[in-house]
Amino acid sequence: MQDPHKPDLDDSLNVTQSHERLLRDAAAVAREKRVNDGGREPVSNWIFVTGGVVAIAAGLALGQAGGLFDYDATVAPGYVRRSLDSGEDSGPPPVDALKAYMAKGEKIYSKCVGCHGPDGKGGGAYPSLAGSEWAMGPTERFSMVILNGLTGPTSTGKEFGVMPAQGVGMSPTDLAAVMTYVRNSFGNEKGEVVTQEMAAHAIEISEKRAQVGTPVNKGELDSDHLQDLEGAALDPTTKVDPVSLAPVEE
């Protein structure tokens, strides 16, 4: 048996040739590009160079575009830009008083829809506001019903239980708006505006009632509140701010 630690004299292997062949194969492998797994190939530096050149060129083009971002140069012909007297926003444009009060009053009346209904007729279970004598009559009487609630018979003599007071947290603006809305909706055509001044007077009267904190009744309404609220009348066509309802000068 041949000793593994001694060379095989009969082996015809040429060590020099094998070594040279190994070097040639290694050189050939080194010349080949390495194949990476999908998505792991390095990004060529030329990509970054090309992208940078394009970005610089685009910036220069936009900077020399003249009126590209100029409003007066690019605005469509015939379009008029609204000009303000000052640098502050002037808010929504003024509208007729009756229209403004009605719009605000409609929002406040949404709290009353559950009983009186969207048509104001009450569905038979609650008093109708359509053509109501108290809604269309003296404004002080109507305001007392809204602010304090009602017990006992209504203007028709029919009872519907106790109406809860609506005056808690109600501002003069809210009261004026909802009164104006009811008196000009559901077929009612009073054509008048219950002003904020009138509504403020109504709140003062309500707070000075002898039975303050309790619902009004027909007897009290007829004896103490059968008149219109004090305050200067407002022409329904007067221009007012649609938010504050304050008259504005045009």
TrEMBL record:
Pfam families attached to this UniProt entry: Cytochrom_C
This protein's record includes keyword Zinc: no
Record-linked PROSITE patterns: CYTC (PS51007)
Keyword list, A-Z: Heme, Iron, Metal-binding
Domain spans labelled Cytochrome c: 100-186
GO MF entries: electron transfer activity; heme binding; metal ion binding
Compositionally skewed regions (Basic and acidic residues) per UniProt: 219-228
InterPro entries associated with the record: Cyt_c-like_dom, Cyt_c-like_dom_sf, Cytochrome_c-type_DH
Region (Disordered): 211-250
Protein name in the entry: Mono/diheme cytochrome c family protein
Protein species of origin: Haloferula luteola
